[in-house]
Amino acid sequence: MKKFEEVKNLVASLEADADKFYNKANSAAGTRVRKGMQDLKNLAQAIRLEVQETKNKATK
């Protein structure tokens, strides 16, 4: 559950930069959003693996 909280916090932290990029055409903010989204992707993959591992252990 800790990693899920990290996902929520990461998305919330990207909100300001997303606003700057989309509404104020700040390209540096776009770079930060892209990096944050890559981090989000990696974190989501880690959660997927953790869930699958837990699921597999429960069925044995």
UniProtKB/TrEMBL annotation:
GO molecular-function terms, A-Z: DNA binding; structural constituent of chromatin
Superkingdom of source: Bacteria
Cross-referenced InterPro entries: Hc1
Role this protein plays: Might have a role analogous to that of eukaryotic histone proteins.
Family, similarity comment: Belongs to the histone H1/H5 family. HCT subfamily.
Official protein name in the record: Histone H1
Organism: Pedobacter yulinensis
